[in-house]
Write a structure and sequence with these properties.
The protein is mostly helical. The chain has a single domain, classed as Urease accessory protein UreF (Orthogonal Bundle), CATH 1.10.4190.10.
């Protein structure tokens, strides 16, 4: 089996993990997108695609993916201290209370689900996984034998699909326009993942002021459909 291959059962488990049907509440968050639409920053399909392209480069590539990979390594080594340190770093980089709340709320939901599925037979891991949905994702991929590269691709897919679906509702856009955005963005995902795999510890970090402004302002938006 080649280095880019993934066995059938781990592939199916990955599809389960990134499915929008996974009961962790991912569909309830827009990560500031709702305010960006309200403020007129995003009016068209092109605007939405540019927003997502920026977040892929400044946040997903430089923060989420390298930390996901390191969390997977910590789980494989059964090193809860290392997992806690990488989780601390991730939460510190979530610049608003809404973004931190999303990370922890989805973390608790995923930890509950993994326990219900029998992956957390002892309680040792649960306090660490409940702090971060990225940590829970890392744990599940290790438990189900999903390779790091495939896990990273799935993580990006789940993020991209969720925000495109949110954008289709908010702008609003047609479903076909949303699928065109996904088609255009996923062409760049494999190369982005490869770059993230090579990123050094000292290069991990994010600088996304537009996301921080949109998220913090969304906290006090008068009417809203999404939790972030």
């Amino acid at each position: 089996m080649g280095t880019n291959s993934i066995a059938t059962e781990p592939l199916l488990r990955l599809l389960q993990l990134v499915s929008p049907a996974l009961p962790v509440g991912g569909f309830t968050y827009s990560q500031g997108l709702e305010w960006a639409v309200e403020a007129g920053w995003i009016r068209t399909a092109g605007d939405l695609e540019a927003w997502l392209a920026d977040q892929l480069e400044t946040a997903i590539y430089r923060l989420d993916l390298p930390l996901l990979i390191r969390m997977q390594a910590a789980v494989k080594e059964r090193n809860t201290g290392m997992l806690a340190r990488w989780t601390d770093r991730l939460l510190a980089a979530r610049e608003t209370s809404e973004l931190r709340a999303e990370e922890t709320n989805r973390g608790r939901a995923l930890a509950d689900l993994l326990a219900a599925l029998g992956l957390l037979e002892s309680g040792d891991w649960r306090p660490f996984l409940a702090r971060s949905q990225t940590a829970g994702f890392a744990f599940a991929t290790v438990a189900w034998g999903i390779p790091p590269r495939a896990a990273a691709l799935g993580y990006v897919w789940a993020w991209l699909e969720n925000l495109v679906l949110a954008g289709v509702k908010l702008v609003p856009l047609g479903q076909t326009q949303g699928q065109r955005i996904i088609t255009d963005r996923i062409r760049e995902v494999p190369a982005l993942v490869e770059r993230a795999l090579d990123l050094g510890d000292e290069d991990i970090g994010t600088a996304s002021p537009a996301l921080a402004i949109a998220s913090s302002t969304h906290e006090c938006q008068y009417t809203r459909l999404f939790r972030s």
